[in-house]
Protein backbone atom coordinates (compact mmCIF):
# COMPACT_ATOMS: atom_id res chain seq x y z
CA UNK A 1 0.00 0.00 0.00
CA UNK A 2 1.43 3.32 -1.10
CA UNK A 3 1.33 6.15 1.42
CA UNK A 4 2.57 9.72 1.18
CA UNK A 5 2.20 11.46 4.51
CA UNK A 6 2.71 15.20 4.66
CA UNK A 7 3.50 17.13 7.83
CA UNK A 8 4.77 20.52 8.91
CA UNK A 9 1.91 22.76 7.87
CA UNK A 10 0.31 25.30 10.14
CA UNK A 11 -0.33 28.97 10.79
CA UNK A 12 2.54 31.39 10.25
CA UNK A 13 2.85 35.14 10.05
CA UNK A 14 3.81 36.88 6.80
CA UNK A 15 7.57 36.75 6.36
CA UNK A 16 7.83 33.58 8.38
CA UNK A 17 9.09 30.13 7.45
CA UNK A 18 7.88 26.56 7.45
CA UNK A 19 9.34 23.24 6.39
CA UNK A 20 7.01 20.64 4.97
CA UNK A 21 7.92 16.97 4.97
CA UNK A 22 6.47 14.10 2.98
CA UNK A 23 7.32 10.59 4.12
CA UNK A 24 6.77 7.89 1.51
CA UNK A 25 6.14 4.21 2.01
CA UNK A 26 5.14 1.36 -0.27
CA UNK A 27 7.23 2.64 -3.19
CA UNK A 28 10.87 2.55 -4.20
CA UNK A 29 11.26 6.21 -3.37
CA UNK A 30 14.54 6.79 -5.20
CA UNK A 31 13.09 5.99 -8.63
CA UNK A 32 10.19 8.46 -8.36
CA UNK A 33 10.19 12.10 -9.31
CA UNK A 34 8.71 14.01 -6.39
CA UNK A 35 6.71 17.18 -6.30
CA UNK A 36 4.84 19.61 -4.11
CA UNK A 37 1.58 21.08 -5.32
CA UNK A 38 -0.86 23.43 -3.67
CA UNK A 39 -4.52 24.29 -3.97
CA UNK A 40 -6.15 27.38 -2.58
CA UNK A 41 -9.95 27.67 -2.19
CA UNK A 42 -11.62 28.24 -5.54
CA UNK A 43 -8.39 27.72 -7.47
CA UNK A 44 -6.87 24.87 -9.42
CA UNK A 45 -4.14 22.74 -8.00
CA UNK A 46 -0.76 24.06 -9.12
CA UNK A 47 2.81 22.84 -9.14
CA UNK A 48 4.97 24.53 -6.53
CA UNK A 49 8.22 22.63 -6.94
CA UNK A 50 9.50 19.31 -8.20
CA UNK A 51 12.69 17.30 -7.96
CA UNK A 52 13.71 14.49 -10.27
CA UNK A 53 15.42 11.26 -9.34
CA UNK A 54 18.66 12.93 -10.39
CA UNK A 55 18.09 15.98 -8.23
CA UNK A 56 17.04 18.45 -10.91
CA UNK A 57 14.59 20.98 -9.53
CA UNK A 58 11.82 23.09 -11.00
CA UNK A 59 9.98 25.92 -9.23
CA UNK A 60 6.89 27.95 -9.93
CA UNK A 61 7.82 31.54 -10.71
CA UNK A 62 5.86 32.72 -7.67
CA UNK A 63 8.10 30.81 -5.24
CA UNK A 64 11.52 31.05 -6.89
CA UNK A 65 14.11 32.31 -4.45
CA UNK A 66 11.85 31.67 -1.45
CA UNK A 67 11.14 27.92 -1.50
CA UNK A 68 13.58 25.02 -1.70
CA UNK A 69 12.71 21.43 -2.48
CA UNK A 70 15.02 18.61 -1.43
CA UNK A 71 14.92 14.86 -1.05
CA UNK A 72 16.48 12.30 1.27
CA UNK A 73 16.49 8.96 -0.50
CA UNK A 74 17.90 7.21 2.56
CA UNK A 75 14.80 8.16 4.54
CA UNK A 76 12.24 8.16 1.71
CA UNK A 77 11.33 11.77 2.41
CA UNK A 78 10.93 14.92 0.36
CA UNK A 79 11.00 18.37 1.91
CA UNK A 80 9.82 21.84 1.01
CA UNK A 81 11.51 24.68 2.84
CA UNK A 82 9.37 27.81 2.58
CA UNK A 83 10.82 31.18 3.52
CA UNK A 84 9.43 34.72 3.29
CA UNK A 85 5.91 33.39 3.28
CA UNK A 86 3.11 35.56 1.93
CA UNK A 87 -0.65 35.44 2.47
CA UNK A 88 -1.02 34.26 -1.13
CA UNK A 89 0.98 31.14 -0.25
CA UNK A 90 -1.94 29.97 1.90
CA UNK A 91 -3.25 26.69 0.54
CA UNK A 92 -3.40 22.97 1.09
CA UNK A 93 -0.03 21.56 0.06
CA UNK A 94 0.10 18.11 -1.49
CA UNK A 95 2.99 15.74 -2.02
CA UNK A 96 3.17 13.85 -5.31
CA UNK A 97 5.21 10.85 -6.45
CA UNK A 98 5.45 10.25 -10.17
CA UNK A 99 6.89 7.47 -12.29
CA UNK A 100 4.84 7.24 -15.43
CA UNK A 101 2.28 5.66 -15.52
CA UNK A 102 2.24 5.46 -11.73
CA UNK A 103 1.27 8.60 -9.83
CA UNK A 104 0.42 9.00 -6.16
CA UNK A 105 -0.83 11.83 -3.91
CA UNK A 106 -0.71 12.54 -0.24
CA UNK A 107 -3.68 13.76 1.77
CA UNK A 108 -2.40 17.32 2.02
CA UNK A 109 -1.34 19.68 4.79
CA UNK A 110 -2.79 23.13 5.37
CA UNK A 111 -0.55 26.18 5.28
CA UNK A 112 -2.06 29.47 6.40
CA UNK A 113 -0.09 32.70 6.23
CA UNK A 114 -1.82 35.40 8.21
CA UNK A 115 -1.15 38.02 10.84
Write a structural description.
With 115 residues, the protein is mainly β. It is built from no helices and eleven strands. The chain has strands at 3-7, 10-12, 18-25, 33-39, 46-51, 57-59, 67-72, 77-82, 91-99, 102-105, 109-113. The strands form two sheets. Strands 2, 4, 5, 6, 9, 10 and 11 form a seven-stranded mixed sheet that branches. A four-stranded antiparallel sheet has the order 1-3-8-7, with no helix packed on it. Strand 5 and strand 6 (57-59) form a beta hairpin. The mean pLDDT is 98.
Percent helix range: under 10%
Categorize the overall geometry: globular
Whole-number mean pLDDT? 98
**Topology as a string of helices (H) and strands (E):** EEEEEEEEEEE
Question: What kind of sheet is the major sheet?
Answer: 7 strands, mixed
**What is the alpha-carbon Rg in Å?**
13 Å
List the total number of helices. 0
Q: Strand percentage, roughly?
A: over 45%
Note the gap between the termini.
40 Å
Regions with little confidence, pLDDT below 50 for 5+ residues: none
> What structural category characterises the helix and strand content?
mainly beta
How many E-type strands? Answer: 11
